[in-house]
Structures are given as structure tokens and as C-alpha cells.
Sequence to fold (216 residues):
Amino acid sequence: MTRYIRAAFLLVFLVTSTACSSHQSIRYVTLDELKASLPANPVVAGFDIDDTVLFSSPGFHYGMTNHDGPDGTNKYGPNPLGSAAFWNDMNGNFDNFSLPKESGKALIAMHSSRGDKIIFITARDSSKASILPKIIMQDFRISAPDIVFTCNTPKKDFISSNHVGIYYGDADSDMEQAISANARPVRVKRSPLSNNRTSYQKVGGYGEEVLIDSEN
Ligand SMILES: [Mg+2]
Fold:
């Protein structure tokens, strides 16, 4: 009987310690903790756009899944993300249907209140038409926002050359690019409704801070 009790204790210990260690491995932070950790002097805060500050899945969903081309094909062709027409529509119109994330609003307001410079660095392609500056101005109350389109090239050089000290992103690749540019990486979580399933396998896995409740 004693043996069974000992085994039960061992089992409870193992389960508890495993649960604790998996919690400890992710460094969750609140907005207040982030704010308190920043240097007194203004910094340059860099932000990814899609799934970080904007829930832009509606436009991407249409782009990737529509049947509005000839004979029911995708109107942007077999590779919408390589289509200039798609990016013209995405940047120039579909962002009217993108929702600002509450966590993005709070982060940007916090950095604005400190007098930090804010820059948006997105892997989106640039396009002739773009309402992104207007949308970001309206949603996040930033006048004349600085937006860099890297056109799917690595963000590292843009993070470095703009002297970004802290970079917020949802994707694993955002964390990798921030780390290689010597910026402080902070993870914003994706909404469970996001249709982007790529580059999101290692949340907290780079030792980066993960903003609590940043899904919305
Ligand atoms: Mg993103």
C-alpha cells in the first residue's frame, strides 16, 4: 500500500513540475511591465502590420480563395501573393475591412505617450494604390505614419537601418529578423480567427517576451 502512495506522490510531483516548467519557458509580459522596462529616453518602436496591429484576414481571404476570374478561377491567378493586382486591391481597398487589434492600439498608444518614434515594417508588396497610411492614421491616431514595405525580402536590414530598438510581430520570422538586427523582439499573438497559418510554430521559443492577451 505504501508503495502505491509513494507512486501516487511521484506522479503528482512529475505532473506539477512538468506543468510548471512549460509555464516558465514562455516569458509572458503585460503592457505595464513592458512600459516599465523601457529606457527613459525615447526609442524607435517597430511594428509588423498583419496580425500584429491589423486583423487583415478578410482581404487576404478574398485574395486567396475567390473564384471571380475566368471560368471560376482566382482572379489574381494561381499565386495571388505574387500578383500586382492583388496587392493593389489589398493595400488600396481591402484594408477598409481590416480590424485594428485592441492590443495594437494599446501598444501604439503606450509608445506614443512616451514620445517614441513609431515605424511600421511589413513584408507586404508595395502598390500604386495604398490606403494603409489613412487606415493607420484613423485606427491608431498617428499622423503621417512611416510605413516600409519590404516586398517579402528579410526585414533585418530595415530594422537595423531605422535604428529600431524594439520590434513587435506575430510571426516566427519577425522574431528571427528582430534578433538578427539586434532589436528586442516582442511577440504579439495571432487571433485564432487569422487565416495565416505559417511561421507560427515557436511562440515564446526564441526567449522573446510574449504580450499577454494580444490575440485581440
Ligand atoms: Mg504579421
About this structure: Residues 21 and 101 are 30 Å apart (CA to CA).
